[in-house]
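S2.1 Query sequence (Regulatory protein YycH domain-containing protein)
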Amino acid sequence: MFQPVMQDQADAGTKVVETKKISSDEPRSLIDVVKPREMFIHSNGEHFKVDQKELFQNFWNDVSLWDVKEISDVSDQYSEQKFKNFFYGSGGQGKTLDLVFNDPIPIDIFQALFKWPNKSIEYNSFDRMIVPFSQQDKANKKVYLVSYSKETVLELTIESANYRNLMDSIAAAQNEMPHYDLYTFSANSKRDFLLPRKQKQLEAKMFFIETIKTSKFKDALFTDPSLVGEESNLNRTVYTDGTSRLEANQKDHRIQYQHRNINSSTVFQTGDLIKRSVKYFNDTGSFTDDYQYFGINSNQQLSFNMFMDGLPIVNGTKHPFGMTSLEVQWANDDILNYKRPNYILGNKASQSEQVKLMNGTELKDLIVKQTKYDDLEKIEQIFPAYQAVSTASDQDQAMFVWLEPVWCMKYNGKTVILSHDLLTEGSENHGVE
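Output structure tokens follow.
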């Protein structure tokens, strides 16, 4: 567990606590780090993406003010077809707002986000939130947490002072939103994908990165930096105090801190891991850019990806720039493994250009034709992102990063960049790390 650095106090002959941090940025709350990635309107068989940042952010900010009055599992009320009708606002089910998360979010995280009664409920995770439009005049509103893969529906009865104004604002902007359509990739598939009807236009951007001094990581991550020794070889700098090891890899723009004398033997609930990770990141000043919870793997390693303009940033494949996420693994109450970028991206691009992304039909054609990821039932999500591309011939000198809009899919837990290069590649199941 993170412990503040101890500094000698000469006049008292004792040690006092002085917290060292990587960055002095303001701490992030859970609602800043756990967010939906996308938001859609479903209305009478039509689908629209809420692209307006202000509408998106205003709605999500209000969630922390919702007062949950009742909770009920209503999964048994939905057959497979009725579930899809409810989900997509079709078959007379009414207009809905659909919030899509990067990864299933545990119930105790939603409890922390809302004003939630202290009621025992079965532990579960949900990757969507469905909010009906047709209840603005009711005192108590219904909101639904949904696990799409498990077809689980949890009904929340809430009170919200701003609900009507927020939903009216979103509905009023519907005509300005891009149309999306539902796609499936095989006849027997149970999973649908919302993809744009027209090609999507986004900006590619160039950023000058600010490299963080390795000594800042040493001071923030080790319990007592005065006991730490340094060694360097080639493009790597290594610090160690005998039990923990910090390695700075300039070529991959990566910092890795490991505790070598402990093992990961305890299995934790994902919600607990998310909360303790956010606290650790705040304690160490790790939130140097906009990082959001992105997922957890089978080894209980959590990923918090860097985001720009509401899109996740992933490392490029052809000319990779390097690390674009905070990754952390716990062992009991201690950090077992912590990896992150060694730079700050900031939010001021030095140059930009317009890029067009494939529409839904073009995406489906690419996915069906490529053979590298041929089990289409393993596709979990499809979403736009930025890939971080190096512009330097020598990665050690890479001070600029090019953020290029791309389509990605989550395939069997891995993030894969969707490009026409897949049509010429063999059948290997690996994705962006």
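The two ends are 25 Å apart (CA to CA). The first helix runs from residue 30 to 33.
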